[in-house]
Design a protein that fits this description.
With about 240 residues, the protein is mainly alpha-helical. It contains ten helices and four strands, in the order αααβααβαβααβαα. Bound molecules: protoporphyrin IX containing FE (HEM) and calcium ion.
Length: about 240
């Protein structure tokens, strides 16, 4: 059967690229909120939350900056390893795990986000420059300036969420990190696995799935705030 030019122009699948059938994209997002293709600098909306997280303050920061600002204990715009450690403890990691993971985040992100040209042995992460920490093999939900792209967030679920519409099973999360891998990018691929493994660990639900809401909250940092609050209550 011949495909008309009109059909070609708007198609989201290509007959000779089976992967486009296996990982479909959304074409109905505008029914839920305006301009899903427009990168949001300060809010992280999805189909269920068209305005993002109302009780979470952007405080003038980009969505990626908000993701990291949770760890900035004294709000001076710089995240030192001991601050990452404290934040990780607050969201429920044990002492050893928080120490290892906390140090690892600063080891990875301090150099790319540095001010000036020299590395700093105290491993600060400068929130102002955190967009420079972006790595390949990610979900594409943050753009290169640290904004949030609703369409790419939603497509994670249309592509990989085969069991439920609003959460990913562990296998599906794994498939997503595999599917996001770009070539010649071992480090980005490892980081992607570690980041999502951590999110899964701290936020999986009773059925062993990662909810869309937890993942959305990961992007604007509200997930960390929620977990810290819940943790404080149980102390
Ligand atoms: C000081 C602490 C942290 C820093 C500096 C940091 C930095 C970043 C940066 C720069 C990105 C953008 C990566 C990209 O889009 O290529 C990012 C994304 C991400 N981070 Fe963090 N992060 C921190 C803490 C955490 C923690 C504690 C977790 C998990 C619990 C986490 C999980 C993620 C995930 C899952 C992504 C999204 C990757 C994707 O789009 O596929 N981050 N982070
Ligand atoms: Ca600080």
């Amino acid at each position: 059967m011949a495909i008309s030019d009109d059909e070609v122009a708007m198609a989201t699948v290509a007959p000779l690229a089976p992967v486009t059938f296996q990982r479909p994209v959304r074409s109905d997002l505008e029914e839920f909120f305006p301009k899903p293709y427009m990168a949001r600098a300060m809010a992280a909306p999805d189909t269920e939350h068209p305005d993002g997280t109302p009780d979470h303050k952007a405080a003038g920061m980009s969505v990626l900056q908000q993701h990291v600002a949770f760890f900035d204990q004294n709000d001076d715009g710089i995240v030192y390893p001991w601050e990452t450690y404290t934040g990780l403890r607050d969201i429920g990691l044990n002492v050893i795990f928080a120490a290892i993971v906390g140090l690892a985040f600063n080891v990875v992100f301090s150099y790319p986000t540095r001010k000036g040209s020299l590395p700093n042995l105290l491993l600060p992460v400068y929130i102002e420059n955190v967009h420079k920490g972006k790595h390949p093999s990610d979900s594409g939900t943050y753009d290169t300036e640290g904004r949030y792209l609703p369409v790419n967030f939603e497509n994670m679920f249309s592509k990989y969420g085969k069991t439920f519409p609003d959460k990913l099973t562990l296998k599906e999360l794994w498939n997503m990190t595999e599917g996001n891998q770009t070539s010649f990018d071992l480090l980005g691929w490892i980081l992607e696995k570690v980041e999502w493994a951590l999110v899964y660990l701290i936020a999986k639900d009773d059925e062993g799935c990662l909810s869309k809401e937890a993942m959305r909250g990961l992007f604007d940092g509200s997930l960390f705030e929620k977990l810290a609050k819940a943790n404080k209550k149980t102390d």
